[in-house]
Specification:
Length: 279
């Protein structure tokens, strides 16, 4: 049977490239910064404009009502964030908005597609590095058309781990984040890193540059595309309590293998995060 979503996958790559070019160009002119949930949760006109470009292009290609959309900036403006069985695009137009604002050189366009609540493919365009990561369920993961694979390290003390601080700066949460990081650092691991974009962090797991990335507080649009890429590169996705990965839960461990994932999970101090699909 013909692959029903190949056209959508190929088109997603084209749209991600076009969106990334817009982001790159916008970074060269003055950036108007606004805030969302807190003074450190940044958004720019570029985030909003690029999301409109992506959704507009997809509607033009596939018809205005053929698919559903979950987009970071549309949700911020009050649209629902519910994943149904219908074909759904999950979009972060500028993942790493803080990086974008500061000129820190990791910014990604993240586009994923789910059907029957299962992720079919993911595209992450790290637009300042010009790296196009993509993966289609069952067909492997690629960076600029070269196949990528996770690392084969199983010894935690030979690993590099990524985590981020997110945008919730309440002292209790920050304490838990730092306490977790301290414990992991002192295992000891080779290093702790963070690129400032969840999508890129997941691609770094997929290429084998690092062994794992975990975070509590991310959103489905930050990680949906990266989730397919990590899995297709041979990696694993788990909840921070070791249970199954849940895209809407705002918590995730992505790793090269279960040994590394479970070793990290032992150290994670969990704190609550309101689900993306909470009523
Ligand atoms: C953020 C980035 C960051 C992560 C935050 C996300 P945004 O996404 O992915 O790495 O730590 O949790 O919200 O807001 O730049 O699209």
């Amino acid at each position: 049977m013909a692959d029903p979503w190949q056209r959508a996958y190929d088109f997603a790559v084209e749209v991600a490239r076009k969106a990334g070019e817009e982001v790159r160009k916008a970074g060269e002119s003055e950036i108007k910064i606004m805030t969302k949930s807190s003074t450190v949760d940044l958004v720019t006109k570029t985030d909003e404009r690029v999301e409109k470009i992506i959704i507009g292009s997809l509607k033009e290609e596939f018809g205005p009502d053929a698919h559903c959309f979950i987009g970071e900036e549309s949700v911020a403006k009050g649209e629902a964030c519910i994943l149904t069985d219908k074909p759904t695009w999950i979009i972060d137009p500028v993942d790493g908005t803080t990086n974008f604002v500061h000129g820190f050189p990791f910014v990604a366009v993240s586009i994923a597609f789910a059907v029957n609540k299962e992720l079919e493919f993911g595209v992450v365009y790290s637009c300042l590095e010009d790296k196009m990561y993509k993966a289609r369920k069952g067909k492997g993961a690629f960076c600029n058309d070269e196949k990528i694979e996770v690392s084969d390290v199983t010894a935690i003390n030979k690993s590099i781990i990524i985590s981020e601080h997110g945008t919730d700066r309440s002292p209790e949460k920050v304490n838990k984040i730092f306490s977790t990081m301290q414990k992991i650092l002192c295992i000891p691991v080779h290093g702790l890193r963070g690129s400032g974009t969840a999508a890129t962090n997941m691609c770094l797991v997929a290429t084998g540059a690092v062994e794992a990335f975990f975070e509590i507080g991310i959103h489905c649009w930050d990680i949906a595309a990266g989730a397919v890429i990590v899995k297709e590169a041979g990696g694993v996705l788990l909840d921070v309590d070791g249970g199954p990965f849940d895209l809407m839960s705002r918590r995730m461990v992505s790793a090269n293998n279960e040994v590394i994932a479970k070793r990290i999970i032992k150290e994670i101090e969990i704190f609550p995060a309101v689900r993306d699909d909470a009523p």
